[in-house]
Amino acid sequence: MTSNLTSEEQAAAAAVERSAATSQLRFATAGSVDDGKSTLVGRLLHDSKSVLADQLEAVEHASRSRGQEAPDLALLTDGLRAEREQGITIDVAYRYFATPKRRFILADTPGHVQYTRNMVTGASTAELAVVLVDARNGVVEQTRRHAAVAALLRVPHVVLAVNKMDLVDYAEPVFAAIAEEFTTYAASLGVPEITAIPISALAGDNVVTASANMDWYGGPTVLEHLETVPVGTDPSQDPARFPVQYVIRPQTAEHPDYRGYAGQIASGVLRVGDAVTVLPSGRTSAITGIDALGTMVDVAWAPQSVTLTLADDLDISRGDLLAPSDHAPETTRDVEATVCHLHDRPLRVGDRVLLKHTTRTVKAIIKDIPSRLTLADLSHHPAPGELAANEIGRVVLRTSEPLALDAYDASRRTGSFLLIDPADGTTLTAGMAGDSFAAAAKGAEAARDDEGWDF
After folding, report:
1. Separation of alpha carbons 260 and 307, rounded Å
2. Pairing of strands 128-134, 157-163
3. Are 109 and 115 in contact (CB under 8 A)?
4. What is the phi/psi pair of residue 179, to 5°?
């Protein structure tokens, strides 16, 4: 089949095949309390043969000690003692497993409203979110909240897992009504792809193997969908972004004048000969070499880690961003963003923080908090003055130095940032630049000046 291809094309085709065979999917689970998130994850691990014998033995022992005849598969993920005692998920439990078709990193996130920040953490890097719904209860407020968070974080694929179908006699009309309600709501938020699957995590129906109890359903099981859903994007469709992580200057007899810029390509494709602009300085040069793990190559793409050499000796340091000269982002010191506050201490107007964007960290001040978003009904509370833990809202920041921020809806990697406490380095807030999901509330107060801030 490849006999008519050039050697370069054959090598590229082989690389694509290898990538497909070992592709990786990051996904998160979410749902209301007792919807069966941890049981679903445990079932996935158990039925895909991804549980070690001693792990299963420990779960069986713990289940027997609690008076349960069958092993409680939720215990495979609910690792905290408080979680096991209460039968709920509190922390984000990360698990790694693989099938012959794909590798997986999953985040089992809490269902309680007070742990919204944990779902944001788990879903921030996810390419797919599994939202569970109890077939007996249907779509509830927390279901809408999780759909809104998935839309806010631009998760490209959402699976609606209608769980506990065994408790409604595997009735197709029950599933159809829930699927229609959720799909209509999620689509209105801009979720691009929604797949509804009827399951029973406890019994194993449609989790890994097809259910004999729901012959009316002809779609994939949860695992089949996870194994086949498209992952990643075509790097050539995105403008290149290269945050500099480290400047390499060996200054040895062998390399007296070598100056390389090491980092991970955040997006796009870089080629030898490309004209690039260094931000925020605005200086320009051209790529003369790309070192990928000790091998000189002509082209590299996200998310490869490489070292670049440039035609000119420029003043470049950690935190600078290299971008194609014809597709370079604008720099700004005024940032408007949607944020989720993570810390127990509220975020207030006037707070001084550090803003970390890719490899760059700068001082910033909270100039305004125009609105707080209520995820239950997507309403805006104008001018709240502060954001408490787990709350999502709009903020306006002023930074001490220019930043090369993309809009979050254009790039999840270079459109996101963290706010950090300058006193102790604690992470305070996760931010998404631009309009993102929540538009600024109308009639919000103008940004306030802060006396004594010197930039």
Report:
1. 6
2. parallel
3. yes
4. -60, -40
Contacts of 120 (CB under 8 A, 6+ apart): 149, 153, 340, 342, 430
Buried b (16+ CB within 10 A) or exposed e, 53-75: eeebeebeeebeeeeeeebbbbb
Using CA atoms, how far apart are residues 380 and 378, in angstroms rounded to an integer? 7
The Cα 353–Cα 336 span in angstroms is 15
Question: Residues in the chain, how many?
Answer: 455
Amino acid at 404: A
287-329, pLDDT tens digit by residue? Answer: 999 999 889 999 999 999 999 999 999 999 999 999 999 999 9
Q: 177: left (phi > 0), else alpha (psi -120 to 50), else beta?
A: alpha
Q: Is the dihedral of CA 48, 49, 55, 58 positive or negative?
A: positive
3-state helix, strand, coil in the chain (%, to 5): 25, 35, 45
Contact between residue 447 and residue 401 where contact means Cβ atoms under 8 Å apart:
no
Residue pair 147/182 in contact by the 8 Å Cβ criterion: yes
Q: Tell me the one-letter amino acid at 283.
A: R
Cβ(220)–Cβ(180) below 8 Å: no
Contact 163, 133 (CB under 8 A): yes
Query: Which tokens sit at 422?
Result: 């300058």
Q: Give the 3-state secondary structure of residue 93.
A: strand
Give the three-state DSSP class for 114: helix
Instruction: Report how far Cα 237 is from the mean position of its chain's Cα atoms.
Output: 19
Question: Residues 22-73: pLDDT tens digits?
Answer: 589 999 988 887 788 778 888 888 788 776 566 667 666 676 777 776 666 6
Q: Tell me how far apart the 2 most distant CA atoms of the chain are, in Å.
A: 77
Answering whether pTM is above 0.85, one says: no
Report DSSP letters for 12-62, one per residue: HHHHHHHHHHT-EEEEEEEESTTS-HHHHHHHHHHHTT-S-HHHHHHHHHH
